[in-house]
Amino acid sequence: MNRLIICAVTLAAGLSLGAIIDHGLVSDPRTGAHAEVSSDAVTAEAGGSPQSLPSAAGPTSAPDLASMRAMIREELALALAKPQAGGQVTPVAVVVPAAAPAISAEQQREAMQSVEAMISGGRWGNEERNAFHQKLALLDPQQREQATQRLVQAIDAGSIKVSGGPML
Amino acid sequence: MRKLKVAAAIAVGLMTQAPSFAGAYYGATVVVGSIYGYGSVVAARDSGDSKQAIGCYIGAYVTNVTDTVSNNYLSCSATDASGNSYYCYDYTPPDTWIKMVTAINSSSWIYFYGDSNHHCQGLNTQQGSAYL
Lengths: 168, 132
Hints:
- The structure holds two protein chains of two kinds.
- Chain A is mainly alpha-helical.
- Chain A has helices spanning 2-22, 39-46, 65-81, 105-120, 126-136, 141-157; strands at residues 25-27, 34-36, 123-124, 161-162.
- Chain A is 54% helix and 6% strand.
- In chain A, the strands form two sheets. Chain A has a two-stranded antiparallel sheet with strand order 1-2. Chain A has a two-stranded parallel sheet with strand order 3-4.
- In chain A, strand 1 and strand 2 (34-36) form a beta hairpin.
- Chain A starts with a helix and ends in a 6-residue tail after the last strand.
- Residues 23-61 of chain A have low confidence and may be disordered.
- Chain B is of the alpha+beta class.
- Chain B is built from three helices and seven strands.
- Chain B has helices spanning 2-16, 41-46, 95-102; strands at residues 31-32, 36-40, 53-61, 71-79, 85-90, 108-114, 120-127.
- In chain B, the strands form two sheets. A four-stranded antiparallel sheet of chain B has the order 1-2-6-7. Chain B has a three-stranded antiparallel sheet with strand order 3-4-5.
- Chains A and B meet through helix 5 and helix 6 of A and strand 3, strand 4 and strand 5 of B.
């Protein structure tokens, strides 16, 4: 692909250079810079300094920059559109990440109900703790905090008896 | 038969030998306040009562099996000799806390504190020979 682009750019540069030469650009001896010489400019300068006249006999009409640009664009487009050496255009693989399955409101409601049931059970051992954490994964941050605070209040009020392992 | 007796005598002798410790020991029993708890792991474990305990818990879970980043959960709890407890939790624990908790072992001393809603706000740990 890089080679293709380099070829296209080289081609475009060559075409541009050719067009520039064809349209008669001359070097301005006063500035050392290249200057376009148009018929108007020649006319204006004619009465002044004769050194400013173009040294090379060539067309004195203004180059058609718009058509030159169009030509370059066309050449580039053609070069880029051509299939690669193998004759096949390599398809670009577009990887679209699969959307993660969202947890439904129903699942979250059920998880909250399960947490409530666990808290109402009055016991808080490893089994309940693990189940609680499993349910937390289904809840959004706000629900998670709500469920945990519900548990915290139950522990602090003594309505739930913690046995073995960490409190939460 | 004689060999068996000798072997049994050696075994009994080894079992009845008391371990000998030397060096400083900071017997840090578990202390619990309204919003904090601290103590050493070994002191809690070796306490004469059956209530003292201190430790922290880390959980990491994903909501979907394809998730590559986990939701982490951290909690610490302490219970003193009288059965008083303080505990705190955090659903977005800083990485530093996670590292500190994973480094807790039998030579650790733990101090944590939080607010009245049991949200953790601070965690200090240290490991040292004097806590063993």
